[in-house]
Amino acid sequence: MKLIKDPKIAVTIAGNDSDGSAGMPADLHAFYDRDVYGMGLMTAAVAGNTTGIFAQQIMPVEFIQKQFDVLNDDFKISAAKTGMLANKEIIDCVADNLEKYDMGKIVLDPVIITKHGATLLDDNAYQTFLDRLLPLADVITPNFYEQQKLTGMKLENKEEIHAGAKKLQEMGAKNVLMKGRHDADQAEVTDTLLTEDGSFHEFTKPQFKTDRVNGTGDTLSAVITAELAKGKSIIDAVKIGKDFTYEAISHPINVGSKWGPINHWAAEDKVE
Questions:
Q1: C-alpha separations of 110 from 133, 140, 143, 256 in Å
Q2: How far apart are CA 177 and CA 165, in angstroms?
Q3: So where are the chain's domains?
Q4: Could you give the CA distance from residue 225 to residue 27 in angstroms, rounded to a whole number?
Q5: 3-class state of residue 261 by DSSP
Q6: Is the pLDDT confidence value at 14 over 70?
Q7: What CATH architecture is 9-270?
């Protein structure tokens, strides 16, 4: 049994996925697995299972604001990550509060386009994301399609990926993690990190074929958030995040009938 008397606190600012596979539940699983006390600031909720999402409810801005106020009134938060932010008003609210309160390191998981290429934000909200949130990010973790959207580039080779990362850094993010494309027929997946000092670092794992991939991006960004909360460097945080997520993907669990969650238990046992 672990005895942690003075844990670091991390907050996920995200939507709740009712089946526990993605969004806030996946973030909280990852926080606890990495020995960080996790809190959830809810921006939306969806009614879904492993076959799909069937309803959603966006939280009122006044309710989101109250969550920011009461959490920061009582707790010393060491890191925060963003997830599903459904519209311009919510993005403005989140940006206002990240500027108002010291919530430690900020990890921006864009949630602009799904890993299958479906767009989640309208143009007005997207522009607000660029103007308000991107400059606040200690690290941004876009998937391949989000990278294409954010940079306006095809990103077909390493040189373009490096140029795209530099462009995102110029747009305001201190560190940029360009997650590798994982829907192509390939043997490996390489994530590329551009750090604040201008250096590039690559993190490569074998491609593991499975339909149990819900919460993959959420988990990666949440582990990075947890490690930054504990004071790890961005390079170490990304390495641990990559290792953790790979173990969770490569040891599937039978939960649900279709697109199931990844296995946080396996990662907890294998990644120190």
A1: 9, 7, 8, 27
A2: 8
A3: 9-270
A4: 9
A5: strand
A6: yes
A7: 3-Layer(aba) Sandwich (3.40)
